[in-house]
Fold this protein.
Amino acid sequence: MHFSVSTWNWAALLKEGLSYQSMLDEIKKSGFGIEFWLATMSKTDIQVYEERYKGSFAHVSCHTSLANTYKDEILKSEIALCKRLGASLMVVHPCSIGFDAHTWDAHYAKGFDSKKFEQIEHYIELAERHQVLLALENGPIEVLEQVMNYVESKHLGSYMGICIDTGHASMHMNEDAEYLFNLLRRFLSNLVQLHIHDNFGNADDHLVPGEGVIDWTKVLDIIGQGQEDVPFVFELKGQRNPLQSAFSAKRFIENHA
């Protein structure tokens, strides 16, 4: 199993004055891979990483800064930035690529516009040129199915996959207790990354696994040994010691695998 931490976990500490370099030092010493939350990465941070840390992490991925909006030029520039950072993958949300849907939405009632799919194809081709895999995170199953059906029909699957966020999927537990598990089963063959966190089934709490209501034994059983190379990225909110929380999460997952 491959474990990474998101720099998003350090967002509060960075706002309070922790230097980006200190955060990178912590993560480097820990042995975790890293996912860069691009919304919190300045030009200076990029320069420091390139000069002192590039090549230091076993696995590097990025998360677009366009978590809740769509901007063509930013998306293009971030795909290119992933290449500079040595990232193999960039997570995008449905709204990042033009859909009016968020990762925590369960349903999508709007019609599908063929121009959207042509637009997505353009981004995948750009990602291919930069050797970066795009990972579409959650959102309504209808959106994921339509996107992946289009991708497969165009033979673009090598540069577009699915990132399943366990916490966002678990937010639908009160209306559908099987939603997370059905999402995992449906897109297991397309799975390229996991965002790991827990909650109580109705809010985006970003808790350490085991502190909420997710049945992790069932999650890991569905994923199975065949997906052992898929990175587990810990996204843990409000932690005063993000690294300690990540180690707790890692121990929990390993004990339940």
